[in-house]
């Protein structure tokens, strides 16, 4: 007696193996597709975060040092840089303390920018610094911490506490109506400097 060939069973098993292999391949393909989607999502989020960081970085880099006090004037970044510049240049330092959201500071800024003689002197004869934060030097607040406040420092690194505004309650403050007095004080700071050298 001959044993019948089992070809149909073998074919069935081969077919099942091929289907399983195909299933595994499809499953791997779908899983790799899901993985690919996750990788693409992560890259997209990373790209967006990087773009936002660049946008913020660009804003901080383009913020002018003038802060609206005169774009044609060379401004120093910090009090320390100002002190170093006045020693090199032998020009006095003019320090303007102000706040961006203070209405008195804003009014003074507008008057300061509108006065051409003050702008010219500031550009040519002074090292200029405008500050929205206080320094650690208590000499820059001889009668207290208030804004707006303008002080002068000579190249010998002496704060000129003798050059004051017109107000008795805050000696170093100026209002928009005090631009002539401020211009006179700027000239005084220059003259004192030259007569002392």
| Uncertain runs | none
Note the gap between the termini. 130 Å
Query: In DSSP terms, counting alpha (H) and pi (I) runs of 4 or more, how many helices?
Result: 5
Extended strand count: 3
**Which sheet architecture does the biggest sheet show?**
3 strands, mixed
Give the CA-based shape.
Answer: rod-shaped
Mean pLDDT: 83
- Give me the secondary-structure category: mainly alpha
**Would you list the SSEs in sequence order as H and E?**
HHEHHEEH
Strand order, biggest sheet?
A: 2-1-3
Using only CA atoms, what is the Rg? 36 Å
Task: Give the DSSP E fraction (strand runs of 2 or more residues).
Answer: 5-15%
Helix coverage percent of residues?
40-55%
What's the helix and strand layout?
Layout lengths: L6 H56 L16 H11 L3 E5 L5 H12 L1 H10 L1 E5 L17 E5 L25 H18 L1
Parallel strand pairs: 1-2
Antiparallel strand pairs: 1-3
Helix pairs in contact: 4-5
InterPro entries: AGR/TXD, Thioredoxin-like_sf
Protein name: Anterior gradient 1
Keywords: Signal
């Amino acid at each position: 007696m001959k044993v019948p060939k089992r070809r149909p069973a073998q074919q069935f098993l081969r077919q099942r193996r091929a289907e399983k292999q195909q299933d595994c391949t499809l499953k791997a393909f779908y899983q790799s597709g899901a993985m690919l989607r996750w990788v693409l999502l992560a890259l997209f989020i990373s790209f967006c975060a990087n773009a936002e960081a660049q946008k913020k970085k660009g804003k901080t880099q383009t913020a002018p040092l003038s802060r609206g006090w005169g774009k044609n004037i060379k401004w120093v970044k910090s009090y320390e840089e100002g002190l170093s510049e006045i020693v090199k240049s032998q020009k006095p330092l003019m320090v303007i303390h102000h706040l961006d959201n203070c209405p008195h500071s804003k009014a003074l800024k507008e008057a300061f920018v509108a006065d051409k003689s003050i702008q010219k002197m500031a550009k040519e004869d002074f090292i200029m610094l405008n500050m929205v934060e206080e320094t650690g030097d208590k000499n820059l607040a001889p009668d207290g911490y208030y804004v707006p406040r303008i002080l002068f420092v000579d190249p010998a690194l002496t704060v000129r506490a003798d050059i004051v505004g017109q107000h008795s309650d805050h000696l170093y403050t100026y209002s928009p109506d005090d631009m002539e007095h401020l211009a006179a004080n700027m000239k005084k700071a220059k003259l004192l400097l030259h007569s002392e050298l």
